[in-house]
Design brief:
The complex is a heterodimer of chains A (178) and B (236).
Chain A lengths: L3 H14 L6 H8 L4 H17 L4 E6 L2 E6 L4 H7 L10 H13 L2 E2 H8 L4 H9 L3 E6 L7 E5 L1 H6 L21
Antiparallel strand pairs in A: 1-2, 3-5, 4-5
Helix pairs in contact in A: 1-3, 5-7
Chain B lengths: L4 E2 L6 H11 L9 H17 L2 E2 L3 H17 L16 H27 L17 E2 L2 H17 L11 H11 L5 E3 L10 H16 L3 E5 L6 E5 L1 H5 L1
Parallel strand pairs in B: 1-2
Antiparallel strand pairs in B: 3-5, 4-6, 5-6
Helix pairs in contact in B: 1-4, 2-3, 6-7
The chains are: A alpha+beta (178), B alpha+beta (236).
Chain lengths: 178, 236
């Protein structure tokens, strides 16, 4: 039985080194710990420790895993160091298409275009290139159209723990018109 | 001079309709169709006058609006029961409502994007270059290689017997990359004057990619391919 402090330190190492979120399963596999609860507890304790000592880093629960990230209040300092950081934001068309895919996945291009009312092929290509969506298969329909779904990168990009973190469509209150 | 401006303000006809509904404080469930059709067509005219390049879908919507308008003007067929009588605007209203929801969802994502922009994680160990973020596929590499071969065939050259192994070419490619972050795909082939050497070079490159010691990346699909050295190589 490994002691908790050691487990925490190992997790700290792994999170520090990894450039993408590590899932509990992945961490458990590496550290060889069967008990997921034990793992989760250790991660959460680490999370709290970083928060308590006002660290510039945080253990972020993101994209179905955990990752070391800087705190947003220090972003201006990071940008001084890392100037080449591109300030590229997604276009409205891309965001609309992404939200349709996020809610309706798996979804075909025709289904997306029916909702948006415009051609979406270019946007889909951009989103695929940025790995925010992926081709998740083909629909059993005439012509076997490609179906799209969101990716882990989608969750990471928007800082989401998992898909359940986006509000359900019924919760979204469109601004009342009239 | 004839120039065209891409229309970015409105995402599409539904977006324009929502804008008109909001602007005129109309009720989505009870759209005054004659009024909104006139308004909509005015916009289309304006797009044309400004020489804006707008999608054909805008015209499709215009005809849909006119169709709904004409159906509203016609008296209902006598055989139709009262309860079966469907408001011709119903389908449009449903589409607008659905679209509006996703537009709202998109703005929630936009907010999250802005927040997440200020949170930095570790950079990947693979060196990233501003625009060169797309991994070139095997097909991209084959296409690029074909161009190199075709160009080489045009050049007149003497036939020389030269034998070099893939291992040797791997070492040479890594030497080329020394102290550099990347080189262009074509640069790897310069000086390789026989078809055999070109092929050996290409196989060496594929092997290096398989071993993840180099990465083939491009800024856009079918764009120029650059060969990047893996970060570990840089540190070594």
């Amino acid at each position: 039985m490994m002691e908790k402090e050691k487990i925490k330190s190992i997790i700290e190492c792994l999170l520090f080194f990894s450039d993408k979120p590590l899932s509990i399963d992945k961490l458990a596999e590496i550290i060889e710990i069967e008990n997921r609860e034990e793992m989760k507890e250790a991660i959460e304790e680490l999370e709290r420790e970083y928060e308590l000592r006002n660290s510039g880093l945080q253990v972020l629960n993101i994209a179905e895993g955990y990752q070391f990230c800087t705190r947003p209040e220090f972003s201006s300092w990071v940008r001084r160091l890392y100037k080449s950081q591109t300030t590229f934001y997604l276009s409205l068309a891309a965001l609309e298409t992404l939200s349709i895919i996020a809610y309706k996945q798996p979804v075909t291009r025709a289904e997306i275009e029916k909702i948006r009312g415009v051609d979406t092929s270019y946007v889909l290509r951009t989103l695929l290139e940025r790995k925010l969506i992926r081709i998740s298969g083909r629909k059993k329909l005439p012509g076997r159209p490609i179906i799209y779904g969101t990716t882990q990168e989608f969750l990471r990009y928007f800082g989401l723990k998992d898909l359940s973190e986006i509000p359900s469509l019924d919760e979204i209150k469109p601004p009342v018109s009239g | 001079m004839d120039y065209r401006v891409r229309l970015e303000v409105f995402e599409g006809p539904l977006d324009l309709l929502l804008h008109l509904i909001k602007k005129n404080e109309l009720d989505i469930f009870n759209i005054p169709i004659a009024e909104i059709t006139a308004d909509y067509l005015n916009y289309i005219k304006l797009f044309r006058r400004l020489n804006l390049d707008f999608a054909g879908e805008f015209l499709v919507m215009a005809s849909t609006l006119i169709h709904i308008k004409s159906r509203m003007l016609l008296p209902p067929a006598e055989t139709v029961e009262e309860e079966e009588l469907e408001d011709p605007r119903q389908e449009l209203a449903a589409r607008l409502l659905e679209y509006q929801k996703f537009k709202e969802a998109a703005s929630i994502l936009k907010e999250r994007e802005a927040i997440q922009r200020n949170v930095y994680g570790r950079l990947p160990l693979i060196p990233q270059d501003e625009d060169y973020t797309i991994e070139a596929t095997l097909f991209d590499l084959l296409d690029a290689f074909q161009k190199v071969v075709i160009r080489a065939e045009k050049e007149v050259r003497e036939i020389i017997q030269e034998d070099i192994s893939i291992e040797d070419r791997i070492r040479e490619i890594l030497n080329l990359l020394e102290n550099k972050r990347f080189i262009n795909f074509e640069a790897i082939f310069t000086g390789q004057r026989t078809k055999r050497l070109l092929i050996v070079t290409f196989l060496a490159l594929l092997e290096l990619i398989r071993l993840k010691r180099v990465f083939a990346r491009q800024a856009e699909a079918f764009g120029v391919i650059r060969i990047y050295r893996a970060r570990e190589e840089l540190l070594a």
